[in-house]
Amino acid sequence: MSFETQYFENLMHWIREHISKPEIIASIFWITIKIVLIYVIARVIIKIADKTIAHMVIAREKSPLKIDRRRSNTISILVHNLIAYTVNLVAIMLILGQVGLNLGPLLAGAGVLGLAIGFGAQSLVKDVITGFFIIFEDQFGVGDVIQIDQFKGTVEEIGIRVTRIKSWTGEVHIIPNGNIKQVTNFSTYNSIAIVDVSIAYDADIDRAMVLLNEVVAEVHERTESIVKAPQVLGVQMIGNTDLKIRVIAECKPNKQGEVSRILNAEIKKYLDTHGIKQEKVEGN
Question: 143 and 235: one domain?
Fold first, then answer.
């Protein structure tokens, strides 16, 4: 008799002696059912998580703040993988527990390792978590003009760990997400351009108001950045030698500087043409 034949017969004998017992068969049956149930539940959890992520992405796309499509897809994949890995790891550990493997030493070792990594990478973990909240809450997006502490500029990149903003003079500031405590976003809603027109103290105020209404209406018609007809509010301040008449214009986000400069130039030329003496024109 060959070795292979003898081994096969011994194996069959062991199976008949042990596995063929009714209580063992019942135990194997219920263990199999539990393993299948754990697997199915894990798949269902991952499916639900995927649908939730998809709904969140759709909701973000409909919000006033827009984020880059590729970035939202990347974050969706990252979150999917994180959830899938976590659920699968828990499922594998539960299955191993069902087959009789002692998970105590394994969990203890994993806990010690995780604790060591946590102490060594607290700043990194903080940056990553803050980055996720920035993206999912749409606090700001690529292309927005924001201010973080003393740094103001256009957002060039929102990373999981850092955010890059470029100032109008060309400097690029790289800010760890964990250091972002407060953000001012200048690109979310329409802005207001304010222009204070100084005219001579002895000028005809009523005529100046009429002329200002005419010129701001013309500027509105040919300036796309102005979303509503500018308003001439009236005399803002009376000085010793001049009067200040305030003009405001609602414009597209972060366009108030551009609109103020246009209004300043057009108001100056228009009032000069019609003989209204100006002391100076101020705007912001």
Answer: no
